[in-house]
Amino acid sequence: MPDERLALLRDLERADEAVAAELAELDELYTEVEELRGRALELQEFLAGLPDARAAAAGDTAAAEQRLSEARAALDEAVGELAQAQAEADVERLAEARRFELRARDALLVAERRAASARDHAAELETRAEAAERETTALEKRARKLAEALLARPRLAGDAVARPEPGASGVAEWGTRARAALLVARSQLAAERDAIVRQANELGTVVLGEELPPQGAAAVARRVERQLGDR
Length: 231
Description:
Elements: H1 2-88, H2 91-151, H3 167-208, H4 217-228
Helix pairs in contact: 1-2, 1-3, 1-4, 2-3, 3-4
């Protein structure tokens, strides 16, 4: 009888190890799904706001270019006024023209910096948009590949992990479904493992004739082996 119980404990140990390995695999899959989902949500938000961001950048650039044009015109006017004052040798007018010309040059420098900044911002936005489109394509490929791996697992409902729709929003929506399916499967596996461990502890208590502290099936099997030997 003890030999049969020890054999059953070994069966429980193997079952515990198998479930633990499957749990570890599900945890890895969950981590990858969550990473994809999180990044897809970020890209979805960026791409959704891109039209407004482009419009704002275009408006800022146009306004900055207009101010730059006005500053150049003001400097041309100041230079002309200075030349006229110099030609007339009007000391008071010359002093005022020089101040006007200095202010116009300062204003032009500021306008040039702001226009350059606006152009750089618009260019950076387009660079980010192109990068987001490329990353979205890469995320779609990763998600499709991962969906195939999830579909091959019998514990996961096929409709919950079916291949995602195109785009960042499709990957994000798929990630939400896949994450939920993985959590359900993991919960079921955890319950199975708890049942295995509980059965092993109950059997160990019967074999050893003493109450055992909660421990894994492998620990119970080793303790029973030491007590009874492998007969």
